[in-house]
């Protein structure tokens, strides 16, 4: 669906190009980030928008992880997933809190993609780099299963490398708010999340 939206937009605007996001390394919410976490929750534009609402989280970066291809791109990503790298201040928010938040903003019961986006690249994954992160991720997954009373298919994946996505994907929800809103609404993401999680 996201590829279709991009193609439709390109057709509508003719020779105009999608707005390129400018790099922004400044932390948000006045916090100093000293740790990062990586999550795959389908469309990385939506994950950026969701995580950047949190206190203690800085400028979230869209990218690719989980595959073996070197220098993946949006068009050629091998077995990589669309992911976000979340910089955060552990004195404000913990990895476990981020993991809990992550589960409540995806459909962890869908093993074939997320919402209208289908295929391996859009499947979910919770990445960890340390034993402590693995334990926290596992606890968050068990909690999600208990709340939903169903088996969660989201795998826990050891992070090997994060690859930053192309510039036009960064901060897309800010630089292209109308196109982003059209995509998010038409994809049914928020409706499905509310159906699954309600007020949890």
UniProtKB/TrEMBL annotation:
The lineage of its organism: Bacteria, Pseudomonadati, Pseudomonadota, Alphaproteobacteria, Parvularculales. It catalyses: L-methionyl-[protein] + [thioredoxin]-disulfide + H2O = L-methionyl-(S)-S-oxide-[protein] + [thioredoxin]-dithiol; [thioredoxin]-disulfide + L-methionine + H2O = L-methionine (S)-S-oxide + [thioredoxin]-dithiol. Keywords: Oxidoreductase, Signal. Residues 1-21 form the signal peptide. Belongs to the MsrA Met sulfoxide reductase family. The active site is at 43. Residues 36-181 form the Peptide methionine sulphoxide reductase MsrA domain. It comes from the Bacteria. The gene is msrA. This is Peptide methionine sulfoxide reductase MsrA. Has an important function as a repair enzyme for proteins that have been inactivated by oxidation. Catalyzes the reversible oxidation-reduction of methionine sulfoxide in proteins to methionine. GO terms for molecular function: peptide-methionine (S)-S-oxide reductase activity. It comes from Hyphococcus lacteus. Its EC number is 1.8.4.11.
């Amino acid at each position: 669906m996201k590829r279709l939206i991009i193609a439709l937009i390109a057709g509508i605007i003719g020779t105009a190009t999608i707005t390129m996001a400018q790099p922004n390394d400044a932390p948000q919410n006045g916090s100093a980030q000293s740790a990062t976490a990586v999550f795959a929750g389908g469309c990385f534009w939506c994950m950026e928008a969701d995580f950047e609402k949190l206190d203690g989280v800085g400028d979230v970066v869209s990218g690719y992880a989980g595959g073996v291809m070197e220098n993946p791109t949006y068009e050629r990503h091998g077995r990589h997933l669309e992911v976000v790298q979340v910089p955060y201040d552990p004195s404000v928010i913990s990895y476990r809190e981020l993991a809990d938040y992550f589960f409540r903003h995806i459909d962890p019961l869908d093993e074939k993609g997320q919402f209208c986006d289908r295929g391996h690249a859009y499947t979910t994954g919770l990445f960890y780099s340390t034993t402590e992160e693995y334990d926290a991720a596992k606890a968050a997954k068990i909690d999600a299963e208990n709340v939903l009373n169903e088996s969660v298919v989201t795998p826990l994946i050891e992070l090997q490398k994060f690859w930053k996505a192309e510039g036009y994907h960064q901060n897309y929800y800010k630089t292209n708010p109308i196109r982003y809103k059209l995509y998010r609404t038409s994809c049914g993401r928020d409706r499905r999340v509310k159906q699954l999680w309600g007020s949890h």
